[in-house]
């Protein structure tokens, strides 16, 4: 019985250690943005649309801003500031002329995917928002991430640092 | 007892008649497109994004095409033709310069909301698709609806009459 208990204890311990190691490994594998440590949220492409946008030259991009459930609820109810847990995703593509309908521009190659994550404690120094800009799944460099808060703070302080409005 | 039975029968009959009248009335109230009888699906604004688009002058519109669950599954799996039950929603807004960020155009006033509904039997004469174009919740006239199938048939016959591709 002593031996059996030992074996069970050892098995349980090993299993637990492996689970912890695996979880740590999985977290470490997910690329995080400099400064903020924002990672790409699972399933963000399935989130609801807040609004599309178009960016003029030199970027020439088509964009769509999506939001997680907390974000969508806040938009619908006009809640400002956005509650903790809000995540906004901005998807951007080069806009290219539709080969089938000349007056239309449609998404070409993807350029960036950007996220704003609301956590009023963790990101208290930047208005409660953490930022992440990703290119091909990899975070952009620290210099690029230094520009996020400054620009949002300068231009949309009155809308909790968020540019995008809900398109009705 | 006879009288009571009669009262119960009369009450049940009246209630049933009212229920049928109400249901008929509710159906009649939902505006349907000419030719196709397409109505605005409940909850379409919560559907997932297929792709944004931009329309040049004279329309100057920003657009977003959303799809119901059947549509999204078909896009993900590359299913062509789209299965019966597919519904696509195209939301369009005038594009206006962002007052907060000059290089960006954002949605202004809503212009049209348009739907394509796949029902290979009901719409056999138009490639399996029914069309509906709505302005302020009201269907556009028959002349406008006459243009839908002809244009889709001429330009995107090879993609089951659907212009929009899934933006990745």
Structure explained in plain terms:
- The structure is a homodimer of 168-residue chains.
- By secondary structure, chain A is of the alpha+beta class.
- Helix content of chain A is 30%, strand content 30%.
- Chain A has a 6-stranded antiparallel sheet with strand order 1-2-3-4-5-6.
- In chain A, a hairpin with a 2-residue loop joins β5 and β6.
- The longest helix of chain A has 28 residues, at 2-29.
- Chain A binds chain B through residues 45-49, 51-56, 59, 62-64, 66, 91, 93, 95, 98, 100-101, 103-107, 110, 155-156, 163-165, 167-168, and chain B through 45-49, 51-56, 59, 62-64, 66, 91, 93, 95, 98, 100-101, 103-107, 110, 155-156, 163-165, 167-168.
Task: Tell me how many strands of chain A there are.
Answer: 6
- Assembly status: homodimer
Estimate the strand proportion of chain A: 25-35%
Main beta sheet of chain A? 6 strands, antiparallel
Number of helices of chain A: 3
Which series of helices and strands of chain A comes N to C? HEEHEEEEH
Unreliable stretches covering 5 or more consecutive residues of chain A: 6-26
Q: Largest protein interface?
A: A-B, 35 and 35 residues
> First CA to last CA of chain A: what distance?
69 Å
What's the Cα radius of gyration of chain A? 21 Å
Shape verdict of chain A: globular
Strand line-up in the sheet with most strands of chain A: 1-2-3-4-5-6
Structural class estimated from helices and strands of chain A: alpha+beta
Percent helix among the residues of chain A?
25-40%
């Amino acid at each position: 019985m002593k031996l059996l208990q030992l074996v069970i204890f050892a098995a349980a311990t090993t299993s637990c250690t492996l689970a912890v190691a695996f979880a740590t490994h999985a977290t470490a594998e997910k690329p995080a943005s400099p400064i903020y440590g924002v990672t790409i949220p699972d399933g963000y492409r399935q989130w609801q649309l807040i609004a599309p946008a178009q960016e003029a030259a030199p970027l020439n991009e088509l964009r769509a801003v999506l939001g997680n459930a907390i974000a969508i609820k806040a938009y619908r109810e006009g809640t400002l500031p956005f509650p903790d847990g809000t995540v906004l995703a901005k998807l951007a593509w080069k806009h290219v002329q539709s080969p089938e309908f000349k007056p239309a521009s449609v998404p070409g190659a993807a350029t960036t995917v950007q996220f704003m994550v609301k956590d009023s404690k963790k990101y208290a120094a930047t208005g409660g928002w953490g930022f992440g800009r990703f290119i091909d799944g990899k975070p952009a460099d620290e210099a690029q991430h230094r520009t996020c808060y400054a620009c949002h703070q300068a231009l949309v302080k009155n809308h909790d640092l968020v540019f995008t409005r809900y398109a009705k």
